[in-house]
Specification:
heterodimer; A: 191 residues; alpha/beta; Rossmann fold; eight-stranded mixed sheet; 5 helices; 8 strands; 29% helix; B: 167 residues; alpha+beta; Beta-Lactamase; five-stranded antiparallel sheet; two-stranded antiparallel sheet; 47% helix; globular
Chain lengths: 191, 167
């Protein structure tokens, strides 16, 4: 839930990175964390399993200063991608102000992306949020690997709202901040 | 639908701070946090510097949300309190409203009954205060007032690419 703290001159928004398991949600947050100086990125919390799959969620707080002296905070969360975490995944979407859907471009993951998008719609509905209006940005990740699904095909299948989309190689930072800027715009109502 | 949002004016911040200060004193708590169940801090009092309050709140909110979900699966109704007992310190959660929870950190030497009593006394006033600052989504657009947030992010990222030093 967005917060406007007038005396502190701060705005706070919650953003969730959603998508199938191993699509690169945590990698997005890690790149942001490793790139931004300490004054912009707080401590990153990672709750993962022994095989580096997100168990519950990752959390990264960011803060940016605006020219008028206001500060905008973004609390970035990832959700666990695996379907057996259905019950906990939807809880992370509680009060979310924006969603980044991170799709895995590899051909063999095509159906996983489709299933994950269906999960997102269902989870939002269960948290009393509307998929049709929630600020949303698509990211088609792992564009550097062989055997990827063409972007047009991914977009036609996954992006029924025709929201902004970005091709990315999150592990190298390609497309990571472009995606973050776009969801910042969408969540703060500038889209 | 978009979510509601919280608008805190100076008087709201003072009201929440005052309630938490009073609760801390009366209950003998070490620290008190009021948070929104999406994980954001609304107010806190005496949280030690060693604790990152943003991370603490994200974990507390998810802990409460997970237990609340469990209670729904079990068919437990009117579920509002969680208690975690540690060797030296304990955590007590008391639900304030559908969207907020009060969390008290207290020492083992303190009595759970004392904490519970004063939380119960504080919750109605906190619930009124939270209700007063919760605004409908339609009013959220005024929050940003045309501020170019993405531009600030891009500018900051560009500045990281600019070589330092030289002249």
């Amino acid at each position: 839930m967005a917060i406007h703290n007038e005396p502190a001159r701060e705005l706070t928004y919650k953003i969730a990175y959603h998508g199938p398991g191993m699509s690169g949600k945590t990698t997005n947050l890690r790149f942001i964390y490793n790139t931004l100086p300490g004054r912009q990125a707080g401590k990153m919390l990672v709750l993962d399993t022994a095989v580096e799959r997100t168990l519950y969620f990752d959390f990264l707080p960011l803060v940016f200063s605006l020219p008028d002296g206001y500060k905008v905070r973004f609390h970035l969360y990832t959700v666990p991608g695996q379907s057996y975490y259905d019950a906990s995944r939807k809880l992370i979407l509680r009060g979310v102000d924006g969603v980044v859907f991170v799709a895995d471009s590899r051909s063999q993951r095509f159906q996983d992306n489709v299933d994950s998008m269906e999960h997102l719609k269902k989870d939002l509905s269960e948290m009393l949020l509307d998929y049709g209006t929630i600020p949303l940005v698509m990211q088609y990740n792992k564009r550097d690997v062989r055997d990827v699904t063409p972007v047009g095909e991914l977009d036609a299948k996954l992006n029924d709202r025709k929201v902004p989309f970005f091709e990315s190689v999150a592990v190298d930072g390609v497309g990571v901040f472009e995606t973050l800027s776009a969801i910042a715009d969408a969540a703060t109502g500038k889209r | 639908m978009p979510t509601n949002f919280i608008e805190l004016k100076a008087s709201d911040v003072e009201t929440l701070d005052s309630e938490l200060r009073t609760l801390c004193a009366r209950s003998g708590a070490e620290a008190v946090v009021l948070l929104d169940l999406s994980g954001a801090v609304l107010s806190f009092h005496r949280v030690p510097e060693s604790i990152d309050v943003l991370m603490f709140s994200a974990l507390l909110a998810s802990n409460f949300a997970a237990t609340e979900e469990l209670s729904k699966k079990l068919g437990v109704t009117d579920f509002r309190v969680i208690y975690h007992e540690g060797k030296k310190q304990n955590l007590y959660f008391d639900k304030v409203s559908d969207e907020s929870v009060l969390v008290v950190l207290f020492k083992d030497s303190n009595a759970l009954g004392r904490v519970r009593l004063f939380c119960e006394k504080a919750v109605p006033e906190l619930a009124r205060a939270v209700a007063a600052v919760t605004k409908p989504p339609e009013a959220a657009a005024a929050m940003t007032q045309g501020r170019e947030v993405a531009g600030a992010i891009r500018q900051m990222v560009d500045s990281l690419k600019t070589p330092k030093g030289g002249g």
